[in-house]
Amino acid sequence: MTTPTDLEFLARLPAAWGFPPGTTIIPAEQGTNNQTFMLRQGGLRFVLRVSQTLSAAQVGAEHRILRWLRQAGLPFQVPEPVAAPSGDTVIETAAGPATVCRWIPGVRPDLTGQTALERFGRAAGLLGEAMRGVPPEDGLGDWRGDPLLAHPAVPHVGALCRQLRAAGISAERAARLDAVARRVGQEWSAGGGALPTQVIHGDLAAWNVLVDEDTGEVSGLLDFEFAGVGFLVQDVMAALFYSGALETRDWQLRTAAFLRGYASVRPLDAAEADALPRLLLARAVGSVLWRAGRWLNGEAQLGEVADRIRKLEDTTRWLDANGGKLRSLAAAGRYG
């Protein structure tokens, strides 16, 4: 929560970028990992972000990735950091590394229709192709690691489950988390074949997509703070997981639309198609453990952890019923 002292600090921060007095600063739509604000200077708009999870060096690596992508000829925009008078695009503050980016016009997409999902899929494919040349050393992390180690505050899932029970999570729910985590650990250790690897977005969710309000075309992709080395298909998995495409009765039509758009740029290979269900379950477990780690550190509420456990339970049931169909659909999507 932002305190009055924080507000006074934020009111002074735009001056570090040379913004004149009278520049307005208002809270923007925020996620859970940063404080984000809108700056207005006359008719110009900018986005101020104070990172809660990255170091200044990591934000600098993110900016190198963004610079690469802005030179890749993409048909949509990615954030463009603004340099301060010092020439720096990152300024360290007591609240975390601060950055200012130019505002990208657009609205959040309505992904209930197949056309929108196909456009999203194509944008994901284009982004993946553009990121192929990003040097691995510029990645902010490695998404190929054990999903049970998603957060350093959660070294052992069994111990976490005991802490969750003590905090009020039901014994049955904690036991299910433990069981699914064990399953994911076994599947991850067994592997699933060689998967194409490169720097990926890392959080290619619907809330990180902007579309043109009039045409519906993708106008921007946001939030590259989790960009790191990973399996390329992990971005496909995250996009499907968070798009809502798998949560309706017509999920096969909606998923096929996304995969069709993706395959128009780069079809999945056989190993990637086979790995999708396994990666979906690993992502759902990792989401619980990440939020639980933040809860253990006093940075999140227990209810947020409970919400993600419920999402994990829903995902597990869905995959038990439909994982084979998803694998077949992804394999068919290899051909566009």
UniProtKB/TrEMBL annotation:
Q: State a single Gene Ontology molecular function.
A: protein kinase activity
Q: Which Gene3D superfamilies match?
A: 3.90.1200.10, Phosphorylase Kinase, domain 1
Q: Which domain of life is it from?
A: Bacteria
Domain Aminoglycoside phosphotransferase residues, every copy: 25-268
Pfam families to which the protein is assigned, alphabetical: APH
Q: Family per UniProt?
A: Belongs to the pseudomonas-type ThrB family.
**Name of the protein described by the UniProt record:** Homoserine kinase type II
Organism expressing this protein natively: Nonomuraea polychroma
